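Input protein
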Amino acid sequence: MRADYVERAAEADLAAELACTWTVTLDAAGLSLLPDGCLDLLWIDSGRLVICGPETAAWRTSLPAGTTAVGVRFRPGVAPAVLGMPVSPLRELRVGMQDVWGAGASHLSERLGEAPDPGARVGILQAAVRARLADGPPVDRVARAVARRLVAPPPGARGGVAGLAADLGYSERQLHRRSVAAFGYGPAVLARILRLQRFLALARSGAGPVGVAALAAAAGYADGPHLARECRALAGATPSELVARETSDPFTTASDPPGTLAAPTS
């Protein structure tokens, strides 16, 4: 599923904005991907620079075997500050960066194509992100707060969107509007996606409880049927199929599971 796919930690000064960097060489099966609350900026060896918008269901790459690519993964809510636009128009889409950054994307793609190796390309992408963050508006503090709360709710936090809005001091309408701009969807959808990723992170780590039912409870699902419905809706698979697929095909990851258990800093 993930032939020659390797994740690494972002450079230290970008750790609050980037969940990880990654490189991949695709095999004939391509790459099967699940929604994770993150957006990826990637360069493909055909010379394309692409932003992968927010997803709400599993999808598979259609690139030919042997394609190589490098990318950076934005933590939930960070991408608008780098892209210079809300991410809601990008939902379920893979968009050429020329449509977002214009000539700047073409120049960046040329530099990436001239770089000697994947490591150098990752460095160039991180430098581009760093420059955009320095010149653009700050990451929306409400988006950071929403992501932090949904990743690791503090003791006593009220549940549901209404409770989240009340705890953060916003109306549900305000919270939904800012969440759609930052994540591509409202906080309820982000909560579902992060819960599924939490379930998978526990399964991959081997440090959680044994068995699908115990993993479901630890991840925050009400019961087995709740988990099964969410796996079908978000991943197109049963919980057992998903765990088997994810744990039987190990891959190298950054120490911080992207878009799941790591809360952005203020």
About this structure: The chain is about 45% helix and 15% strand. Residues 99 and 137 are 20 Å apart (CA to CA). The longest helix spans residues 187-205. The two ends are 35 Å apart (CA to CA).
